[in-house]
What we know:
acid-sensing ion channel 1 fold
Amino acid sequence: LNEFRFSKITRNDLYHVGELLALLDHRFEISRPQLAEPHVLAALRDKANFRNFKAKPFSMAEFYNRTGHDLAEMLLQCSFRGAGCTARNFTVVSVRAAEMPPNVGAPG
């Protein structure tokens, strides 16, 4: 779950990916509530209240973009070879691309 900011996860997100994130079980109930801190459990209970809830369409790409960590918010200071830098100097790299050998797609 550290991949995502819990505070940005909505009830609709939880409905669609709660089990995938191991936050809910197959019955849409909180999975292992004893492991959560009280304030997190309270927020999770609120988000997992699906009574009278009508699910909206869900996009995993939109979910990642909205709930993922924002480097601009996390980067306190940056320098590269003595020059200052910002979050704009970084590029997002997918994990799958990072796991590929460097010559994938290269001729020969």
